[in-house]
Amino acid sequence: MFRRINRRRFLQTSLAATAGLGVSAIRASASNSENNVEAIVIGSGFGGAVASLRLAQAGIETIVLERGRRWVISDAGDTFCTYEKPDGRSTWLSPTTVVFNQVPIDVYTGLLDIKIGNGVNVYRGAGVGGGSLVYNGVTYQPTRENFYKAFPRSIDYDELDRIYYPRVRSILKPSPIPDDILQTKYYLAARTFLEQAAKANLKVSKLDINIDWDIVRQEITGQKVPSAIIGQVYYGMNSGAKNSLDRNYLSMAEATGKAKILPLHVVTEIEELNPRRFQIVCNQINEQGTVVAQKTFTCRYLFLAAGSIGTTELLLRAKYNGKLRRLNDNVGMFWGTNGDAVGAVITAGQTNPTQGGPAVGVIEDFDNPIAPLVIEQLPFPIVPEGIYAALSQGITLPEGKLTYNTSTQSADLFWPKDSENNQKIAQAYLSTYQRLNQANNTTLAQALDFSSTAHPLGGAVVGSVCNSYMRARGYPNLFIVDGAFIPGSTACTNPSFTIAALAERCMDNFLNKGRNMKDEDMEL
Ligand SMILES: Cc1cc2nc3c(=O)[nH]c(=O)nc-3n(C[C@H](O)[C@H](O)[C@H](O)COP(=O)(O)OP(=O)(O)OC[C@H]3O[C@@H](n4cnc5c(N)ncnc54)[C@H](O)[C@@H]3O)c2cc1C
């Protein structure tokens, strides 16, 4: 479904440019400035947005360094490009699109980035709001039982359930699709999925989605440009229906006057200056990815939120270059895909005229005798009439890893896609699809596609690199507040809700209990 793109050579050149590696000519002409602040957050996705707001509300001067640009929804409804007419806005610094069909585009600081790995490719968002700009809005809390299959007991699920998931929910305000919208022609594929799951006696329910359904109604009546109703999700949503983080957590942080977001700032190096101070080097780029200035910041508290891949790469580089010497050898380890696999179900009936989204329902097969799993129907633009696409997620073991490649000065990703556990998970998914298919006379269009994930997790995980409150071992003032903290799976759910809830828990602990903690006092 997600096509593999061979653009390694291009990436090496362009990433080297944006990472500021081997670009001495640009460096020579770049200006250099020094900024000292109390706290720096690197990345503005789920972990970064939560950290920024809570720091700013506590009165702490905070700078947020984000590699991507800011996206403002225009009244004309043309902020983002569409699947039918993709351009540079779709993709992060690439000469072609990287999802669905490979189309030539202008090189631009667009939304969707790909990390090509050995065993799996990873999709991730770039821009102020991170993954929330490209995501389906699924806001999904794991069950207690599943949670402890993926997380250690040092994280109290009941506390998350009581305090931190509700805290995130109070800001994002996700809700299930209202029936009047579900019954429109745009959501035929979603209705088909819900009906077929029920017919197969599978437990199926509506998901909470981080979207403004009133704006979706305006799409239906023609007051807003069609976006959600025609499944335009992964290149952004022009109607403004998606509640991306720039419109809640991040704007709230900026409104305090204490947090400043600097878009188009690519962090290249982090370094400990002394046990209580860090130096951060970044390249300011223009929208075409050219470095226009190099900047250096220092801070007392450093929050890494560049996503599983981005944060782990920064840590690996710092460790290799001797800039964070006390990081342990587990950096890069315990990485996983959340079990992502895409399937396409051929039905006997119709599924179009459109694949309304961004998402609607989920099959929960937690009692599957092989392994617990979920299946969510999602809109995919390349799905033809009579077919709907679905994403399975399970509890993968964190068997993957990122290692530092000294020649490219970036991280190499390895995922053992055929490991025993991954084969077991694949069998579990197939057995649930078989139940669906037998009850409905449907079939899978092709083998399940495990070749890519949109849910990279791990690399600086709880219990090995961090304590349970996201503090890096050996560095009491360094925090890993994003997906890098999570050992490979959010327990049969999409990860953003759990990332945000864990970040809320971290910030509570930091602000109320542990601002001046010593390493020897850290609970692990
Ligand atoms: C197409 C798609 C659909 C998805 N749908 C869902 C969904 O419906 N529900 C769900 O829960 N999850 C979904 N996800 C996954 C979700 O987006 C991620 O799990 C989540 O965004 C991860 O949060 P994070 O804080 O770890 O990092 P991110 O949200 O990835 O944020 C990291 C940020 O850091 C920035 N950054 C990276 N490197 C640097 C650097 N060197 N310097 C400065 N900035 C940097 C990036 O540009 C980015 O903005 C989806 C993902 C994709 C790609």
Characterization of the model:
The protein has 524 residues and is of the alpha/beta class. It has a single domain (8-521), classed as 3-Layer(bba) Sandwich (FAD/NAD(P)-binding domain). The chain has twelve helices and 19 strands. It has helices at residues 8-19, 24-29, 46-57, 144-150, 157-172, 179-182, 188-199, 213-221, 249-255, 307-320, 420-440, 496-512, and strands at residues 31-42, 62-65, 112-116, 121-125, 203-206, 259-262, 265-274, 277-285, 291-304, 341-346, 361-365, 373-378, 387-394, 401-405, 410-414, 443-444, 452-453, 471-472, 475-480. The strands form four sheets. Strands 1, 2, 6, 7, 8, 9, 18 and 19 form an eight-stranded mixed sheet that branches. Helix 3 packs parallel to helix 9 (249-255), helix 3 (46-57) runs parallel beside helix 12 and helix 5 packs across helix 12 (496-512). It is globular. The two termini are 41 Å apart. Residues 1-33 have low confidence and may be disordered. The site of flavin-adenine dinucleotide (FAD) has 41 residues, from helix 3, strand 4, strand 7, helix 10 and helix 12.
